[in-house]
Amino acid sequence: MSDLSDGADGTVFNGTVDLPRIRRAVREILIAVGEDPDREGLLETPDRVARMYAEIFSGLHVDPRVHLKRTFTQKHDEMVLVKDIEFSSMCEHHLLPFMGKAHLAYLPNGQVVGISKLARIVDMVARRPQVQERMTEELADLMMTELNARGCGVILEAAHTCMSIRGVHKPGAMTMTSAMRGAFLASATRAELMALIFSTRR
To answer: I need a surface site. Which of 16, 30, 117, 177 has the fewest CB within 10 A?
Structure first.
């Protein structure tokens, strides 16, 4: 985990996140909802929230492509799938988390990437305020472009707390999104991907 601390001038974290500004904003929110930010239980809350935001939004300040730069020559022309990659992200509409699993697959074109790198790009892209649909598209575009793949497919399934703790109050509802590129647009390849991901589930 990163060292979440103020910068040398006391105003920034890692040159990117203004922790004091977040602290002031959280204090104002507490006052606005009718709380006393100076009571014992809330005294350190603004600082905790500032550090949390620096961590969960750290993907705004990194380039996930770096993890796909190193590939290996390998004669393998069948599907490579890493499934059930757990992630958590933040809905940009209500700043509430959504959590679930990502499934990433691609068809190599003479080059493969370390399988852990696919999990790493999920983590990096997830650590931003966003919508699930855009996250799905971004992951597919990253693999297609950086791996020079013949095709790729991304499926995300997630539970959104903005649906479970507010609004319609539907805990347990799952949102599924997919993005297919290249050879994965063909029905047979898409069907193979779906079978590999979901056929073993009970």
So the answer is: 16
The yes-or-no answer on residue 76 being catalytic is: no
Q: Is 152 a catalytic residue?
A: no
Close Cβ partners of 50 (under 8 Å, ≥ 6 residues apart)? 17, 19, 20, 22, 23, 26
- To the question of pTM greater than 0.85 for the whole model, the response is yes
Distance, in Å, from the CA atom of 161 to the CA atom of 177, rounded to the nearest integer, reads 17
Which amino acid, 16? T
What are 2-57's pLDDT values in tens digits?
344 444 334 444 558 999 999 999 999 999 999 999 999 999 999 999 999 999 99
* Separation of alpha carbons 104 and 154, rounded Å: 5
Sheet holding 175-182, edge to edge: 129-130, 80-91, 96-107, 151-160, 175-182
Q: Which of 94, 111, 138, 157 is catalytic?
A: 94
